[in-house]
């Protein structure tokens, strides 16, 4: 029996003018696993996220999410997106619980008046991400790691099955990183699928079941210990054997 496929890219090609960002990328991500997406600066990670969320239509190839087109998957609320911190206006005066409630908008009528089921879903999502105590706090008054968890909670409240996390460990301290990893594992154990972009190669085995090395095309995919080999890293990152631990942050994203 083959495992359920959460994400299926077939020959996906994206160009921005003369720049070939994704070159016939074919990729299958099994459901119910944590997948790390690794690649240097400009290797096409954000473009791949955009193709998966349907923000961008590839010039060639197809994308399926649990068998649905990206648009259909979005309308069904199947995809949760955790953006990079700099893409969010943290000064916007809104409470943690309000951001998580946004995940329920698709379930509400035009009035956007939360019902008991919406409140229950928000409470459960806050609990799952360890944010119950912070429900009333302004998002601007959270740590970097707590902010990531708010967006994860929004996706859980929405009922998403696939989560895309863009550099969730960037700018968070070790303690917060460990908490995020716990949340990712718990979500995986609940049956969610997670695709996590990171430049922190050394941390990859700790949080992911599978790794994908991207350099405009898929260089390698498999268990982290099989993907993070010196030869493959040299291919994708230009790194030499033994450099991986030293690569944290240093221009390798
Ligand atoms: N809107 C755009 N217009 C032109 N070129 C673009 C655009 N967006 C991305 N690119 C180029 O496409 C390539 C892939 O970019 P992408 O942002 O997907 O990479 P990335 O792996 O996410 O990089 P980073 O780690 O820096 O976020 C790069 O060469 C980038 O300069």
TrEMBL record:
<dbReference type="InterPro" id="IPR050153">
    <property type="entry name" value="Metal_Ion_Import_ABC"/>
</dbReference>
<dbReference type="GO" id="GO:0016887">
    <property type="term" value="F:ATP hydrolysis activity"/>
</dbReference>
<keyword id="KW-0067">ATP-binding</keyword>
<dbReference type="InterPro" id="IPR017871">
    <property type="entry name" value="ABC_transporter-like_CS"/>
</dbReference>
<dbReference type="InterPro" id="IPR003439">
    <property type="entry name" value="ABC_transporter-like_ATP-bd"/>
</dbReference>
<dbReference type="InterPro" id="IPR027417">
    <property type="entry name" value="P-loop_NTPase"/>
</dbReference>
<dbReference type="Pfam" id="PF00005">
    <property type="entry name" value="ABC_tran"/>
</dbReference>
<keyword id="KW-0547">Nucleotide-binding</keyword>
<comment type="similarity">
    <text>Belongs to the ABC transporter superfamily.</text>
</comment>
<dbReference type="GO" id="GO:0005524">
    <property type="term" value="F:ATP binding"/>
</dbReference>
<dbReference type="InterPro" id="IPR003593">
    <property type="entry name" value="AAA+_ATPase"/>
</dbReference>
<feature type="domain" description="ABC transporter">
    <location>
        <begin position="7"/>
        <end position="241"/>
    </location>
</feature>
<keyword id="KW-0813">Transport</keyword>
<protein>
    <submittedName>
        <fullName>Manganese transport system ATP-binding protein</fullName>
    </submittedName>
</protein>
